[in-house]
């Protein structure tokens, strides 16, 4: 599990520290430009979407509460969930330390 999180945190950090054009230039050409998307559209979409990637991999305060709130909103919530048992920051913090990244996100607490 730690190796997977290490890779994800390193990826999120790279997304945070590089422009969408730089990222597109390093990906396989067939991924960023094909019958479904032009490279320019890929870059535009990534620029708009970059904010969802947290550079340190830590679940932000309030983040976990969004899932059950959405389920309640659409009428699919059937029971209460103890959010503190659904996630941990341990793997992301270890990945940050291993990679030498500074943890900057205010982490979610046990209640989300």
Key phrases:
112 residues, mainly alpha, 0% strand, globular
Could you give a short description of this structure?
This protein has 112 residues and is an all-alpha fold. It has helices at 2-17, 20-26, 29-32, 39-49, 63-73, 90-99. The longest helix has 16 residues, at 2-17.
The backbone outline, from C-alpha atoms, is globular
Briefly note the structural class of the backbone: mainly alpha
What separation lies between the terminal Cα atoms? 22 Å
Radius of gyration: 17 Å
Question: Segments where pLDDT lies below 50 for 5+ residues?
Answer: none
* Largest sheet report: none
Helical content class: 40-55%
Q: What letter string, H or E per element, gives the SSE order?
A: HHHHHH
In terms of DSSP E residues, the strand content is under 5%
**Average pLDDT rating:** 90
**Number of separate strands:** 0
Description:
This protein is mostly helical and 112 residues long. The chain has six helices and no strands. It is globular, with a radius of gyration of 17 Å.
SSE layout and pairings?
Layout: H1 2-17, H2 20-26, H3 29-32, H4 39-49, H5 63-73, H6 90-99
């Amino acid at each position: 599990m730690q190796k997977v999180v290490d890779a994800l945190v390193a990826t999120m950090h790279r997304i945070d520290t590089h422009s969408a054009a730089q990222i597109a230039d390093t990906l396989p050409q067939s991924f960023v430009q094909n019958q479904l998307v032009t490279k320019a559209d890929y870059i535009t979409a990534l620029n708009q979407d970059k904010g969802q990637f947290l550079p340190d991999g830590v679940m932000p305060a309030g983040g976990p509460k969004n899932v059950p709130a959405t389920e309640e909103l659409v009428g699919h919530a059937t029971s209460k969930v103890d959010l503190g048992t659904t996630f941990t920051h341990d793997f992301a913090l270890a990945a940050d330390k291993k990679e030498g990244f500074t943890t900057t996100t205010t982490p979610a607490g046990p209640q989300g």
